[in-house]
Design a protein that fits this description.
The complex is a heterotrimer of chains A (290), B (616) and C (317). With 290 residues, chain A is mainly alpha-helical. Chain A is built from eleven helices and no strands. In chain A, helix 3 crosses helix 11. Chain C is mainly alpha-helical and 317 residues long. Chain C is flat and about 85 Å long. Classes of the chains: A mainly alpha (290), B alpha/beta (616), C mainly alpha (317).
């Protein structure tokens, strides 16, 4: 009784909602993320050298004033390559994040609210896919089919949808029997309206979390596949691929391998940090119970 | 301040000179120097004495009690003295306090379903507590001890020791928890709303048990409750808290004989009486403020009809009225007479209306509902009743009585297994078989207000959006649609609330918006499922009054509740449910005044009366 | 219903997973570009005799489902055929390579449990202190670091720069192998540690907020008792589940680690088999992975049953 009423004084009308300041780490993450997106769009234009230009007589060198991060075994400028590689590194994860989120929202809401065949299929597929390692399946499928970046992207979308749909469904289920939904039913609102106008906004925090997590996992898995030679094609400046190509140069010009490695890690960490923060904010915005 | 040595002990108790617990100037803030949650609390409790801390949510009663065992949630900042048997707990380190906990001060919590470790057996709970004071127990001794301790809390079934918590009922779990709290023979037991989560009949049993244990052991008890009548029944002295501070302190009888604070009077008045119907159910206007907004004024001034500008200039101290009675109202002497009159005014029963029953609006016949595929148990097991036009019907029952299932069947949220529900001539027992037009008509005739105000409104949308959506479902036959502002006005909310989101509203305000949403389509019947159970007492009255006005303007109430006092105020006829069956029905007054079924009699007897007799 | 029946049912679900996985695996032969004969031919000269032998050996003249049935029957006898590249039986290839990967997986698991569970419990107990924030930041970094990137970083710092550890291979002799295992095991464990720490912290936070912990403290129970019987025991369900999940994922991580550190193991075998289109080996490996996943899941379920009486009640009715 008072456990419920106890929220009254805290969430009550008189107390102004606390505005939470953005922590420094999140601010840095945001700046970094913007930078990476900037590189993804303008990277090839901003690069000091042509990322593909080979210079066999230069060969591998360490950092110089002309090549700030040195060059690889073909004499290609590392800085230009990591800048140009941002696009390939980011675009796949972005596609995975958006498609997985949208698809799982559609199926998750239908499965959670309507139940029926969709729910049964979602549950069964989820059961089967549970604990099936995505990276392993991707290695086999992509390897056998002969590789390719967008094939990898498509496979990863397919592999992430079942789990994400279950997450959305769980979020919908926790709303489904709340009085505001039942009041809507009692008013005679259509199912479509309840799903889109009432449930959708309240599962958005979950969707945001899914999108950002899928971006991070997409980045990690895609670059892993590229590293194994199954994603981006040879010679591409995609970060994982570049790391694979240059890891033999650790003694001569470690930048050639370390720069893409650190960029992948920093991008993933930044997005994850941002995701955590956005999720907290979004779910705080609308929830009264904390 | 009253001199502690002159405070008269309750008669018949074994009291000694030094207080068992002496709290002085206790303050709890969110962080050092941060917003206060409890301000300047003084409290004394003697050996063998039972004290109640009473207040609505946010009063700080629970936090204050936890300070007495140094279990205030991490992060909060506590200052002041909390002396237990002379030692200041607030200055002790964690290890020293641990020696006090359990043996010196013990605590019982509210929710029996979360108080015990779900992964270990009842027996283990008891034995680990017995052993934690360094006591050595052989296996056989431990088994004896467990039996003895369970017997003390009225559990004679030896197998309970071998059960896991999830295998026990709520009342049983609370008894086990009490046995654990008592295992190290504490001198002081803090009981934090120990019966709030229990059914009324179980509540009385557990309170009786608590009292008999207290008397047998001569133990001090600090009882936290939101229920004044429970506090009056069980305690020697009562501290009334409001927004982080004590506003009045007295023996139970003093509050009624010589009320000295407007808030306490308001609180007593706001409790709907069980024995008679009252003319006006207004509660206390406004809502409980956050403590930090009233730290330099009388916390109650903004809701007090006796407040003067001086009341908001400084925080009034708690001053003696008599040697056992103190009040924090600066005008306590001038207004004493008016307070008493105000209190007595609330005791005048109103004439009970007996409106004539018109045509049958709702007819329920042979309704049964089972959730199991094999139909092994029935949540609703054969219910028949009719709701005549113009009369409000109450449906009363404890948890497990099937009242919520019944409501859900009526609303079409569940499909009955058997039986029929006829609403204004349409059979609605199978909502799915209704055609579009029928469905639309039915929806326009029956609406609902749910229990939990916090999830009754979609948190993503504004109040205006919610009401406009409801208005869009209003059928043309229901007459011209009111505006959102008119709807808000009908439930006593200003038009500016239309722009707000639910998060910015208090529980009572949300419940009013929920009522407004139901009224938007002008239903014939408004089903209220425990509409005030989650609200503070001072706000309950406001919401009930709104519902009464609704019922006077042509919408009938079908009122589902566990609360006999509320049902008395709101309904003309009454149906009593026990385990899915109707055990008694009739006019509300008749059923409550002369219950003919033993179960009804037990329910009526379980309502706290506010005097000590109730627990003897 | 009894525990035995429950185990049988879970095994049944596992079997279903195996059948579906095996069907998928069998299809690989047909999905991969080129005709099955060409795929199975590998690098051998394409003479009519050899093609004829292959057609007969793999029953390529039978209908698809018959082929699958035949393959499945052989698979149940752990006969996945011979590697196209080395002509060795797939089972032999697998067992030869399993040792180092098992060692890697075990080392990673030990590291994970030893570090992650205490770290997560500590962070939850010290919620919102600098210690907690440190742990949370490290887990965030750990979970966003791809295994291969961590591997390359470790190689650079401890292998190339400091020269503390060897940079490639499995090593010989016990100490040599152990020496070679250190960096790969850390690389494998970083993501796992981050994951389990996160799960542990979240689980312990939920437990610490529970009334039964407050009630235990109010009875003056000892700190270590509350720690073990309340905090750890009640957090253990999600921790066990998380650990099981990462065991199922180990083979995926092993591919990356073994490739990064040029180790010979099941993981690097997987990549080599895929790259050389050595379909029988891939089929064997996937079946191996599916069996691992099934057994791990069953193990997790059984441990959880042992911990939680409510689950036991659900199972036994």
């Amino acid at each position: 009784m008072s456990a419920i009423a106890g929220q009254d004084a805290i969430g009550g009308g008189t107390t102004a909602r606390k505005r939470r300041r953005m922590p420094v780490s999140v601010l840095l993450a945001a700046i970094f993320a913007v930078l990476v997106v900037g590189l993804a769009i303008f990277g090839p234009l901003l690069a000091p050298h042509d990322p593909a230009a080979q210079s066999l007589q230069t060969g591998v060198i360490g950092p110089t004033s002309d090549h700030l991060l040195g060059t690889d075994h073909l004499g290609r400028d590392i800085l230009s390559r990591v800048m140009a590689g941002a696009r390939d590194a980011v675009i796949g994860p972005a596609i995975i994040a958006i498609s997985a989120t949208v698809i799982s929202l559609v199926f998750g809401i239908i499965a959670g609210y309507r139940g029926g065949v969709v729910e049964a299929v979602v549950l069964r597929v989820g059961d089967l896919m549970y604990a099936v390692p995505a990276i392993l399946v991707s290695i086999v499928v992509i390897g056998v089919l002969g590789g390719g970046y967008y094939l990898a992207v498509a496979v990863l979308v397919l592999l992430s949808v079942p789990a994400d749909t279950r997450v959305v469904r769980a979020a919908v289920l926790s709303e489904r029997h709340l009085p505001y939904i039942e009041a809507g039913q009692t008013l005679g609102l259509s199912r479509w309206r309840i799903m889109t106008v009432h449930i959708l906004p309240n599962v958005m925090p979950t969707a945001v979390a899914i999108a950002l997590l899928e971006f991070v996992y997409g980045l990690i898995t895609l670059s892993s596949l590229s590293f194994l030679g199954l994603g981006a094609e040879a010679g591409s400046p995609e970060w994982g691929r570049m790391l694979a190509d240059n890891r033999t140069l650790l003694a001569e010009n470690p930048n050639a391998a370390l720069a893409p490695a650190l960029l992948i890690m920093a991008t993933a960490a930044a997005v994850m940090l941002l995701g955590d923060w956005i999720y907290d904010r979004v779910s705080e915005e609308s929830t009264t119970r904390d | 301040m009253t001199d502690p040595t002159t405070t008269a002990p309750a008669p018949g108790d074994q009291l000694s000179g030094a207080p068992l617990l002496a709290v002085h100037d206790l303050a709890i803030t969110r962080w050092p120097g941060g917003p206060p949650l409890v301000t300047g609390l003084d409290l004394e409790l003697r050996r063998g004495e039972t004290i109640a801390l009473v207040g609505e949510s946010g009063a700080g009663k629970s936090l204050s009690a936890r300070a007495a065992i140094k279990l205030v949630p991490a992060g909060l900042h506590v200052t002041g003295e909390v002396r237990f048997q002379g030692e200041d707990l607030n200055r002790m380190d964690e290890e020293a306090v641990r020696a006090v906990r359990g043996g010196g001060v013990a605590m019982l919590l509210q929710d029996p379903f979360t108080i015990l470790n779900p992964l270990i057996r009842t027996r283990t709970h008891l034995i680990e507590t017995l052993r934690s004071s360094g006591r050595r127990l052989s296996g056989a001794e431990a088994a004896d001890e467990v039996t003895r301790r369970l017997a003390e809390v009225g559990i004679t079934d030896a197998s309970v020791g071998d059960r896991y918590p999830f295998e026990l009922s709520g009342g049983m779990r609370q008894r086990v928890a009490l046995a654990c709290a008592l295992a190290k023979d504490p001198a002081l037991l803090i009981a934090d709303e120990p019966t709030t989560a229990l059914d009324a009949t179980t509540q009385r049993d557990v309170l009786r048990l608590l009292r008999s244990v207290q008397q047998a052991r001569g133990m001090g008890v600090l009882m936290i409750t939101h229920d004044l009548r429970v506090a009056f029944s069980i305690s020697d002295r009562v501290y009334v808290m409001y927004a982080g501070g004590v506003v009045e302190r007295a023996r139970p009888e003093d509050f009624l004989a010589a009320p000295a604070h407007p808030y306490t009077v308001g609180l007593i008045r706001a409790e709907p009486p069980t024995g008679y119907r009252r003319e006006q159910l207004d509660g206390i206007p406004g809502q409980v403020p956050a403590p930090e907004t009233v730290s330099h004024q009388c916390a109650f001034a903004d809701r007090c009809s006796w407040a003067t500008p001086e009341c908001t200039t400084a925080r009034p101290p708690l001053l003696a009225v008599t040697d056992v009675h103190a009040s924090a109202c600066r005008r306590r002497e001038e207004i004493a007479g008016e307070l008493l009159a105000d209190l007595h005014a609330a005791w005048e029963p109103a004439t009970v209306p007996d409106p004539p029953a018109g045509e049958t609006v709702l007819r329920v016949a042979g309704l049964r509902k089972s959730y199991q595929r094999d139909r092994s148990t029935w949540a609703v097991d054969g219910i028949d009743f009719t709701l005549g036009s113009g009369r409000n019907l109450g449906i009363v029952g404890e948890s497990g009585s099937g009242k919520t299932t019944l409501a859900r069947c009526l609303l079409g949220l569940e499909e009955p297994t058997e039986g029929s529900i006829e609403l204004l001539g349409t059979d609605v027992s199978r909502y799915r078989s209704l055609d579009r037009e029928q469905l639309r008509r039915v929806r326009g005739q029956l609406q609902c207000v749910f229990q939990d105000p916090y999830s009754s409104l979609n948190r993503s949308h504004s109040v205006g959006f919610i009401l406009r959506e409801a208005l869009s479902r209003r059928s043309p036959e229901a007459g011209p649609a009111p505006s959102v502002e008119e709807l808000l006005d009908r439930v006593g909310l200003a038009a500016r609330y239309a722009g707000r989101k639910p998060v910015a509203l208090s529980g009572g305000q949300r419940q009013r918006v929920a009522i407004a949403r139901a009224l938007a389509i002008a239903p014939k019947v408004l089903l209220c499922d425990e509409p005030v159970a989650a609200l503070d007492v001072s706000v309950q009255g406001q919401v009930l009054q709104v519902l009464r006005e609704v019922s006077e303007s042509g919408t009938q109430l079908l009122f589902i509740t566990h609360d006999l006092a509320v049902v008395r105020q709101m309904t003309d006829d009454l149906v009593v449910l026990e385990r899915g069956k109707i055990v008694e029905s009739g006019r509300t007054e008749a059923v409550l005044d002369q219950p003919s079924h033993p179960y009804t009699a037990r329910l009526v007897g379980a309502v706290p009366t506010g005097d000590a007799e109730w627990l003897s | 219903m009894s525990i035995a029946w429950y185990i049988l049912r879970r095994l049944g679900v596992g079997l279903l997973l195996l059948v579906i996985a095996s069907f998928f695996v069998f299809c690989l032969l047909y999905i991969s570009p080129g005709s099955p004969e060409q795929v199975l031919l590998g690098g051998r000269p394409s003479t009519p005799e050899i093609i004829g032998t292959i057609r007969a050996k793999y029953n390529l003249d039978d209908p698809f489902l018959v082929q699958y049935g035949q393959w499945l029957l052989d698979a149940f006898r752990l006969d996945f055929g011979e590697s196209i590249v080395t002509d060795q039986p797939v089972t032999t290839v697998l067992t030869d390579r399993a040792g180092p990967t098992l060692a890697l997986a075990l080392a990673g698991l030990v590291l994970t449990i030893v570090i992650a569970v205490p770290a997560g419990m500590y962070a939850a107990a010290k919620r919102n202190t600098s210690g907690d924030r440190m742990v949370s930041m490290l887990t965030l970094l750990g979970s966003s670091a791809p295994t291969f990137a961590v591997g390359v970083l470790l190689l650079y710092v401890f292998g190339v720069s400091l020269e503390w550890f060897p940079v490639f291979g499995n090593g010989t002799g016990f100490t040599g192998q152990l020496h070679h295992l250190v960096l790969p095991a850390i690389a494998l464990a970083v993501t796992q540690i981050a994951y389990v720490t996160r799960q542990t912290r979240a689980a312990a936070l939920r437990v610490y907020e529970q009334d039964y912990v407050t009630f235990a403290r109010s009875r003056g129970l000892g700190r270590s008792l509350i720690w073990r019987r309340y905090a750890l025991l009640n957090s253990s369900l999600p921790i066990v589940t998380a650990t099981g999940l990462l065991l199922a994922y180990t083979l995926g991580g092993a591919v990356l680690v073994e490739v990064t550190f040029s180790r010979e193991g099941v993981g690097s075998l997987m990549l080599q088999a895929v790259q050389s289109k050595d379909i029988p080996v891939v089929q064997g490996l996937v079946a191996f992975a599916a069996i691992t996943v099934t057994l791990v899941n069953l193990g997790v379920d059984l441990v959880n049953l042992a911990i939680d009486p409510r689950l036991r009640k659900e199972v036994t009715g």
